[in-house]
Fold:
Amino acid sequence: MTHDAIILEGLTFYGYHGVHPEEQRLGQRFQVDLVAQCDLRPAGRSDRLADTVSYRALFDAVREVLEGPPHQLLESVAEAVAEQVLARFPLIVRVTVTVWKMSSPMPGHATGRVGVRVVRGRAKEEGHDADTATASSS
Structure:
């Protein structure tokens, strides 16, 4: 597996995802970090966009999910982004998607963000499981 990656961090969208009715009615800000692993040597040698994956195309794929139909769970949003990226971009062998909810409706004075992270890859990439997931929050 390659250690090369295209990285997009802090992509911010307004979406209507959440378990609570007010989240789906009023919406809120979400942030996405994406790490798309692929072999960047061909593009590094050729200096041609055709030999890599466009940052803009990745951004558009993420935006379609985040600004699209509502999901109840962040896990579902992250899974949809990972599926979209792997389906659209055959050069990408593994993707890590972190979805952050910037304001969580938790009691008290919770500050900061909460999120989930999923790691997905193509079937049996060099001995690693294709579907692994981890959750994170801060």
